[in-house]
Amino acid sequence: MEINGVTIDNTYAEAFPTWICRIIITAVTKEWALKAATEATGFATSAIGCPCEAGIECLIPGSETPDGRPGVAILICASKKKLKEQVVERLAECVLTAPTTAVFNGITTAEEKIAVKLHFFGDGYEYQKEVGGRKCWVIPIMEGEYIGEEEFGIVKGVAGGNLFVMGENEMSALMGAQVAVDAIMEVRGVITSFPGGIVASGSKVGSLKYKFMPASTNEKYCPTLRDKVPDSKVPAGVKAIYELVIDGLDEKSVAEGMARGIRAAVNVPGVKLISAGNFGGTLGPYKFELHKIL
Amino acid sequence: MEINGVTIDNTYAEAFPTWICRIIITAVTKEWALKAATEATGFATSAIGCPCEAGIECLIPGSETPDGRPGVAILICASKKKLKEQVVERLAECVLTAPTTAVFNGITTAEEKIAVKLHFFGDGYEYQKEVGGRKCWVIPIMEGEYIGEEEFGIVKGVAGGNLFVMGENEMSALMGAQVAVDAIMEVRGVITSFPGGIVASGSKVGSLKYKFMPASTNEKYCPTLRDKVPDSKVPAGVKAIYELVIDGLDEKSVAEGMARGIRAAVNVPGVKLISAGNFGGTLGPYKFELHKIL
Amino acid sequence: MEINGVTIDNTYAEAFPTWICRIIITAVTKEWALKAATEATGFATSAIGCPCEAGIECLIPGSETPDGRPGVAILICASKKKLKEQVVERLAECVLTAPTTAVFNGITTAEEKIAVKLHFFGDGYEYQKEVGGRKCWVIPIMEGEYIGEEEFGIVKGVAGGNLFVMGENEMSALMGAQVAVDAIMEVRGVITSFPGGIVASGSKVGSLKYKFMPASTNEKYCPTLRDKVPDSKVPAGVKAIYELVIDGLDEKSVAEGMARGIRAAVNVPGVKLISAGNFGGTLGPYKFELHKIL
Amino acid sequence: MEINGVTIDNTYAEAFPTWICRIIITAVTKEWALKAATEATGFATSAIGCPCEAGIECLIPGSETPDGRPGVAILICASKKKLKEQVVERLAECVLTAPTTAVFNGITTAEEKIAVKLHFFGDGYEYQKEVGGRKCWVIPIMEGEYIGEEEFGIVKGVAGGNLFVMGENEMSALMGAQVAVDAIMEVRGVITSFPGGIVASGSKVGSLKYKFMPASTNEKYCPTLRDKVPDSKVPAGVKAIYELVIDGLDEKSVAEGMARGIRAAVNVPGVKLISAGNFGGTLGPYKFELHKIL
Q1: Where do the domains of chain B lie?
Q2: How many CA atoms lie within 13 A of D234 on its CB side?
């Protein structure tokens, strides 16, 4: 299959379940909401070495937020037992501390909820108040008053949706990947947790040589090893490969994000092929076949 | 003491020692270096609840980096025993994974060093190479090749330098704080680890009411509690207070940062008073007297 | 009328007709489209002293542009006889010259069109090609090939929709104005042509003292002249006023932009009053009554 | 000559004289100074079709500006007779109107000056005041008070310094050009007036086919015409060429900018060759030989 002269590989991305909490951060301006959201979702690229995976999902205009101020939705993804601790610490240290912020539950329909009791920070001076139909705590702080909800819905979502963007050289593949990330981020319900949404060093599980490593370079996809490893999967003429990893609230949003990413990347000169990563079905229950989602 | 009609309080900021690692991240453009640096220094506002304190110190032009590409210097601050783990995880997950990045030791003169052995990720395909006089490892990855040093100098620096920016209302204090942060960031060797460099909810150690809390709101500096708490330190006419927290490689750079921050904040209409936080000398050995550093 | 404790003045904004051309600029990334659009709409705040009024209307995702790449829509507003020259020069000098750009007609349903014959730049090497159903010219250039349409719809739209955001001090009014501009820009079909969308120095027609001046300071709305001019319209407690000026394709989009701007500004602490400017109906045929549009 | 494997052509860039006015715009934050500066230097890429050439030279920290606030220096370049009008209109419409701005003379040592009498906008309410040793006018406006100098030094500078960045494909050449512009902008005294500093469609004087065109595509440097025009100057393997145009206050700063640009571009994978444009010495008196300036 080809789009705009770029081959779309006949393969699928394999993904697995994760628990996700969605939080709406509002602030006096979208810039301040984004600063808090960026800090709160940092050091959260991959569950392999970070305490969670997290990212900014979308901007939300004031006309759609509980307090009428500009907002940013973030997703925090982790195992169920780690999730609460991560939400607590990230909201306490990175959002409650940030100028003019408020936080609201981003999945009001979720069956399960976690409690994030920031109001103890008020040392007894805190009180309750309704804002936009939400039951909030008000905490007196040096800035004035912090206002926020303390119950956040969590759902079982999808982690590890992915695309491989392959180019005739590094800059083509990078621009292709960047444009794909921008397109993916137009879809609500998904994040791309890596820096700029892009992984330069996709990995395989474990290591052939160093047994203590939980993951190591995916040598079959390394262009500089094309003539050195048996069974290299680097196509002729490909000099650079970037992986995009997508986490999302459900299969549909991940599939939509992947489809938009592909359709965007094929417009970048020098992009040669779009593929995806899987482990033959051993990793997880979700399969996103590239030819089907398009 | 007054500058531009704004009172500079006759007090001092109290600070304490921390271990600091300085890392130079380069990339094909400064934007990509910044994206990696932002992710690597996220979730790192305060040692109270984050695994470390970290931030972007400065941009470094290509004419000053080992590989001639645009760079960003970051500081990671923690206790000595936590520092190595944080540097390893943050470089492995947030920089090695990021497009086009390289990392270099940012304090070549340091007596102590930590080893960050990312090259095991190469699964045996890695090799050594000199770049700009630095001994680096080259790791084949899907993008092409990752290049980086693996020994990073660490020094005993200063954490907790601070300023309080007080305004006649919230927006004045916020703009004053923002301008102060911009001025602080002109000084090399310092970071402001909170979102946008600003703390909206400065804290006191412990809690009067909730014994399980390691820190709680600094009620004496809460404008809305001015008439409710005894000994409020909120001056008449002040409606909002922001704290800026500065970590730095040495006392001199922290003092210089604080001085620049003060001189900048006083130019913002509605800023009334600049002060600083201390615990009467019980917290740490460093004292930054506002009237002396100016 | 009050919203969130902020008074909404019982008055109207007066606006007048203008001719508008809407152009879609696409590029390899939205950043490059924005750079071209920013240059092409610069030096275009007010028809009083600039050759036209122009601004960025909105980002357009690749899924909605003729060539599938990320786009930016701009509006260029002027009298009918000036409009063609301005569109020609701004596209020729600021878009054709910019990396990776293409241009497309942004109002395909318009009854009137202007021709912008950039293809002569090709010096005979140019040729025609259809892109996304649009008849385009391809011009060989040093980058590769420039592609663009050469007929652009123009419509009679509305210039001079406006709001006055008044604050208890300068920073409050400025943040209120900034948030209002962000909200206005969520509406398709409108621009705010001033820097950051905000006018700091609203004017009256002509001058009382200097007869050669086509416009001069609106002294009745100057806070520092409140006690010096008769009939000052600065309310008690107001220390700063910013004007937002909105141009749009039709009355409906301007009214919607104004309504969103008001609802956003009232959330900023220290904003006291929202009003609008008119000249008693002598300036133009459009009246936007604040209480009606909300 | 080769640097980092990239050929540096043995040629020179030819440049010519222009008059330049340097203006320092300060504001409450650097963001607001930048917004005013961006508007004031828009629609100013090339003297061929724009009323002037203009651009942002550099950020200036508050510690170096007359009023202690963050600043941006801009250069406006034109013939002597056009320069005054352009400075007047751009300051009046794009800076006086912008939130919180002030303007100051950026070349205090210049022998020649132009007067920019904005104070008439005050309609008699304006008055004089000294700020940072500069004689300024204060104009009451709706925001509060505008403050600015009204005499600006002008000097005879250099226009048309240039580089050609050639790549094995479009994205490589574009990234090479982008990195070069970033490096050029580290040098004080220069601007790159095109969008993002880059020209995608470099031109020759006049047109072979369309006699009414003052400039047309430089077909000898068009990669897609390599096999169609005699004497093509596109080297084998080059698929895209971007031109960077540099204007500066003197020869030294232009040469320094060009040298930094070259040293930066050669670090981008896929950049093959750096050259420059000249007209055999017929255009202007300045010659920048690439091998000498490095």
Answers
A1: 2-14+157-293, 20-155
A2: 27
Q: Is the minimum CB–CB distance between C53 and chain D shorter than 8 Å?
A: no
Contact (CB, 8 A) for A278 and A286: no
Question: Is the Cβ of C99 closer than 8 Å to some Cβ of chain B?
Answer: no
Q: Are B129 and B65 in contact (CB under 8 A)?
A: no
Q: Write the DSSP symbol of residue D223.
A: G
CB contact under 8 A, A264 and C62: yes
> If you ran DSSP here, which 8-state letter would residue A140 be given?
E
Q: Please write the tens of the pLDDT for every residue from D216-256.
A: 999 999 999 999 999 999 999 999 999 999 999 999 999 99
State the alpha helices, DSSP H only, in B59-169. Answer: 80-94
Answer whether D2-14+157-293 and D19-155 agree in fold.
yes
Cα→Cα distances B293→A41, A216, B239, B253, C190, Å: 36, 50, 27, 11, 50
Name beta bridge partners: A26: A71, A102
Q: What pLDDT digit, counting tens, does each position of B185-198 carry?
A: 999 999 999 999 99
Bridge-based pairing state of the strands D12-26 and D286-289: antiparallel
CB contact under 8 A, A100 and B195: no
C30 close to A (CB below 8 A) = yes
* Closest Cβ–Cβ partner in B171, B175, B268 for C268: B171
Do the Cβ atoms of B183 and D29 come within 8 Å? no
Strand partners, B102: B26, B147
| Partner D contacted by B183 (CB < 8 A) | yes
* CATH code for the part of the protein at B20-155: 3.30.70.520
Q: What is the pTM of this model?
A: 0.97
pLDDT at D188 over 90: yes
Whether C68 and A264 lie within 8 Å, measured CB to CB: yes
Q: What ipTM was predicted for this assembly?
A: 0.97
CB contact (8 A) between residue A267 and residue C62: yes
Q: Is D84 on the interface with B (CB under 8 A)?
A: no
CATH number of C2-14+157-293: 3.30.70.520
- Is D67 close to B269, i.e. CB distance below 8 A? no
Q: pLDDT of B41-70, one tens digit each?
A: 999 999 889 999 999 999 999 999 999 999
Q: Measured at the alpha carbon of residue B31, what is the angle toward residues B254 and A93, in degrees to the nearest 5?
A: 50
A2 backbone dihedrals φ, ψ, rounded to 5°: -130, 140
Beta bridge partners of A117: none
Q: Quick check: C221 and C164 in contact, CB under 8 A?
A: yes
Per the structure block, which two tokens stand in for B9? Answer: 């309080």
Encoded amino acid at B115, one letter: A
**Taking all residues of chain A, what is their mean pLDDT, rounded to a whole number?**
97
Which one of B43, B88, B121 makes the best mutation probe of the A interface by having the most chain A beta carbons within 10 Å?
Answer: B43
Q: What is the DSSP letter of B90?
A: H
| Residue B279, pLDDT score | 84
Chain A residues whose CB is inside 8 A of the D175 CB are 171, 174-175
Flag whether residue B61 sits within 8 Å of chain D, measured between CB atoms: yes
Mutation to test the A interface, candidates B89, B201, B228, B274, most A Cβ within 10 Å: B201
Q: Where are the alpha helices (DSSP H) in B22-140?
A: 30-40, 80-94
- The size of the A-B interface in CB pairs under 8 A is 273
Ordered per-residue pLDDT tens for chain A, 294 residues: 999 999 999 999 999 999 999 999 999 999 999 999 999 999 999 988 999 999 999 999 999 999 999 999 999 999 999 999 999 999 999 999 999 999 999 999 999 999 999 999 999 999 999 999 999 999 999 999 999 999 999 999 999 999 999 999 999 999 999 999 999 999 999 999 999 999 999 999 999 999 999 999 999 999 999 999 999 999 999 999 999 999 999 999 999 999 999 999 999 999 999 999 998 878 789 999 999 999
Which class would CATH give A19-155?
alpha beta
